[in-house]
TrEMBL record:
Protein name: Thiol peroxidase
Function: Thiol-specific peroxidase that catalyzes the reduction of hydrogen peroxide and organic hydroperoxides to water and alcohols, respectively. Plays a role in cell protection against oxidative stress by detoxifying peroxides.
Subunit structure: Homodimer.
UniProt domain Thioredoxin: residue ranges: 52-200
Lineage of the species this protein comes from: Bacteria, Pseudomonadati, Bacteroidota, Bacteroidia, Bacteroidales
Signal peptide (residue range): 1-25
Domain of life: Bacteria
Keywords: Antioxidant, Disulfide bond, Oxidoreductase, Peroxidase, Redox-active center, Signal
Family named by the database record: Belongs to the peroxiredoxin family. Tpx subfamily.
Additional note from the record: The active site is a conserved redox-active cysteine residue, the peroxidatic cysteine (C(P)), which makes the nucleophilic attack on the peroxide substrate. The peroxide oxidizes the C(P)-SH to cysteine sulfenic acid (C(P)-SOH), which then reacts with another cysteine residue, the resolving cysteine (C(R)), to form a disulfide bridge. The disulfide is subsequently reduced by an appropriate electron donor to complete the catalytic cycle. In this atypical 2-Cys peroxiredoxin, C(R) is present in the same subunit to form an intramolecular disulfide.
Catalytic activity of the protein: a hydroperoxide + [thioredoxin]-dithiol = an alcohol + [thioredoxin]-disulfide + H2O
GO molecular function: thioredoxin peroxidase activity
Amino acid sequence: MNTVKTMLGLCAVLTLGLMPLQAVAQSGSPARERGEVVICRGVEAHTCGPMVKVGQEAPDFRAVNAALEEVSLSSYRGKRLILNIFPSLDTPTCALSVRQFNARASKLENTVVLCLSMDLPFAQSRFCTTEGLDNVVPLSLFRSRDFVEGYGLRLADGPLEGLMARAVVVIDEDGRVIYTQLVKTISDEPDYEVALKALQ
């Protein structure tokens, strides 16, 4: 009988000890650990970490092009870069942002626009071919852990969890971040003019 009581007592202690851990697991990480706050389809969502900052060296990453080849950010060193980051080409605003940057990119010297999303390379290539977009470079992040870790822009919760938030990052010839915008409401377009002014 004493053994049974001892075992029950131990179980109670263990259960009480695990309750705070259980509560943390259920409630999720604190907002500061979840990164930035955005509005996605009318509800608050969070990115997986803090966004890359102006003044820092742009973290290198690998992404996949239409030929299923891995392309690294560092391979564009010496070029000015606009990273147009978005959830999916299958949404009107994302498609519009690619068209807008494509139209403006032809007027920029020594500048490459990389369009980055979780869309598969086949879908990206088909979209750009159908639309006649040849001034931007579509790259898929579907297996790019280093982009997720370095830029903090994957959605950690909300209706589009797992996809990228909408953002623009501008990088100079030396690989330094000179402008960022995280679009607070994902259905809104980025500020094209301000992003382009960062390169003037």
